[in-house]
Design goal:
This is 5'-nucleotidase. With 288 residues, this protein is α/β, with parallel strands linked by helices. It is built from 11 helices and 11 strands.
Length: 288
């Protein structure tokens, strides 16, 4: 584990603090631990051989199964709003209205495509979205040791489920909080359920008002995995948390955002398409 934490591509503002935090999580054991993870570019890969992998939304944006007019407009929305999402010049509060606009327009646009459940399944299975190397072990071991995993995503929950079913398995220890599609009796998309989840409002999701974290109150240690500043708020509902180890995948605009990530995440991973670091920590936990 020490070798992994000191390897190339692993950055920490305070290595001594991280070492102590990991020791406390490991010594407390698996019965005191829960895991919270983003999906897009966290559990899924950012790139393969230099080529960007799709997110949940861009799986649809890039699909040949959907109209060209949809794809053109969707790509235009991404070109406009993605630079704002990762901007280092705007505050989170300044970004939020833009994210609401982006997600709302993207979802409304998708409803015009007469997308069906069966077509969605085919689109996901034909897509290039891929789980990170080592993610299968990660999912298997969390399930084996009955360790709860909350996947907290601003993507599309239906797509996450299809990815897990197609590339691995949807285990019962997994809870997904995301934007879920609403289909009519004919299986055609008519909208999205519940409140909108975007990159920067994960702290306001209904999961924080539910009894999910209350039921896990004895699991006072958390490993949090994310790739954006907004992901840091995923554990806000853990009122009884003692130790929260925050691991961030810095995938894009590395030089511009490194200082911010090092100040906010305990461990920052750059150019790492694997789950090696979180898996190494889990291996230590499972040995106890």
């Amino acid at each position: 584990m020490e070798a992994l934490l000191t390897k190339q591509g692993v950055y920490m503002r305070d290595p001594a603090y991280v070492e102590q935090l990991v020791k406390e999580i490991v010594s407390a054991g698996k019965d005191k631990l829960q895991v919270i993870a983003d999906f897009d570019m966290t559990l899924s890969r950012f790139s393969i051989n230099g080529k960007r992998c799709p997110t949940c939304h861009s799986v649809l944006d890039d699909s040949s199964e959907l109209p060209e007019s949809y794809k053109t407009t969707a790509h235009g929305l991404r070109a406009k709003y993605y630079p704002i999402e990762i901007s280092t010049e705007k505050t989170t509060e300044e970004k939020i209205p833009y994210m609401v606009d982006w997600w709302t327009q993207a979802h409304d646009l998708l409803v015009t495509c007469n997308l069906t459940k069966s077509k969605l399944r085919d689109i996901v299975r034909d897509s290039e979205i891929v789980l990170r190397d080592g993610c299968n072990w990660f999912l298997d071991e969390l399930h084996k040791h009955k360790l709860p995993l909350l996947i907290f995503s601003a993507g599309v929950g239906d797509i996450i489920i299809e990815v897990l079913l197609h590339q691995h398995e949807m285990y019962e220890n997994i809870k997904i909080v995301s934007n879920f599609m609403n289909f009519n009796n004919q299986g055609v998309l008519t909208g999205f359920k519940g409140e909108l989840i975007h990159t920067y409002n994960k702290n306001k999701s209904a999961i924080h008002k539910s009894d999910y974290f209350e039921k896990l109150a004895k699991r006072e240690n958390v490993i949090l995995l994310g790739d954006s500043v907004g992901d840091l708020r995923m554990a806000d509902g853990c009122k009884y948390s003692k130790n929260v180890l925050k691991i961030g995948f810095l995938n894009d605009k590395v030089e511009e955002r490194m200082d911010t990530y090092k100040n906010l995440y305990d461990i920052v991973l750059v150019a790492d398409e694997t789950m090696d670091v979180p898996n190494s920590i889990l291996r230590e936990v499972f040995r106890m």
